[in-house]
Amino acid sequence: xxxxxxxxxxxxxxxxxxxxxxxxxxxxxxxxxxxxxxxxxxxxxxxxxxxxxxxxxxxxxxxxxxxxxxxxxxxxxxxxxxxxxxxxxxxxxxxxxxxxxxxxxxxxxxxxxxxxxxxxxxxxxxxxxxxxxxxxxxxxxxxxxxxxxxxxxxxxxxxxxxxxxxxxxxxxxxxxxxxxxxxxxxxxxxxxxxxxxxxxxxxxxxxxxxxxxxxxxxxxxxxxxxxxxxxxxxxxxxxxxxxxxxxxxxxxxxxxxxxxxxxxxxxxxxxx
Length: 272
Ligand SMILES: NC(=O)c1ccc[n+]([C@@H]2O[C@H](COP(=O)([O-])OP(=O)(O)OC[C@H]3O[C@@H](n4cnc5c(N)ncnc54)[C@H](O)[C@@H]3O)[C@@H](O)[C@H]2O)c1
Fold this sequence. Notes:
CATH class: Alpha Beta
Structural class: alpha/beta
CATH topology: Rossmann fold
Shape: globular
Oligomer: single chain
Distance between the termini: 36 Å
Bound molecules: nicotinamide-adenine-dinucleotide
CATH architecture: 3-Layer(aba) Sandwich
Order of helices and strands: EHEHEHEHEHEHHEH
Strand content: 5-15%
CATH superfamily: NAD(P)-binding Rossmann-like Domain
Radius of gyration: 18 Å
């Protein structure tokens, strides 16, 4: 498919109030798609919606942790637009700290948003996308952290490894049940967003928080990441990457660790 073929379709983006999600919404609008902005922060999506012109835009405050809220989002989208061309399950957050020091509620919140939020998007939208014979795409935002081992970012790593496994499994399920739905994983490396500004930090890992904030500040812009994302969708890629070299380095470490049954520290060279 060509990028031009997306014009007139509908894109649904979770976590659309900031960073990669907001940039994806802008990119979708620039490609002529109607855009549905979903985020737990109504103020953020209202601000993004106000920027978008020339296409239909709907801002639907949605907490992706809540299965009923995501069902309600799908109801509103199908009432308004009747079909979905691209679903981007993207909402996510970070958390830093030694596993035993992170409050249980915070750990749960990371898994609820990053992993169950994606599951909720799949369960609410796939049956309706599957009932429509036209081609459509589901993209789950994972991370290079979905194939890396990252101490002191364990809840995030666990959630993203989960998103990776979920996405590959759902790819196979859709190929079987609804072959018109293409499923992809979007695995960004460092993209300059507010994700670490919003992350709660434990006292003993304040240095990590500073390190990661500085690292991603130097990263790719969300606009560049969103462009690569839609280019990947148009090419029907399963793996949509922003930093292929970092992905390959981490993937080969993972493959060696598993294949040679190495201990976690055998190839560990710092933070992941
Ligand atoms: N920025 C990076 O370097 C990077 C790298 C790899 C993966 N990612 C992933 O990209 C995705 C987007 O992150 P970002 O960097 O743009 O962060 P961001 O903090 O700029 O944006 C995330 C958005 O998700 C929203 N959100 C949080 N909880 C939510 C909930 N319960 N329901 C709905 N929305 C919720 C936030 O309000 C925010 O607007 C995340 O899944 C993240 O893990 C980011």
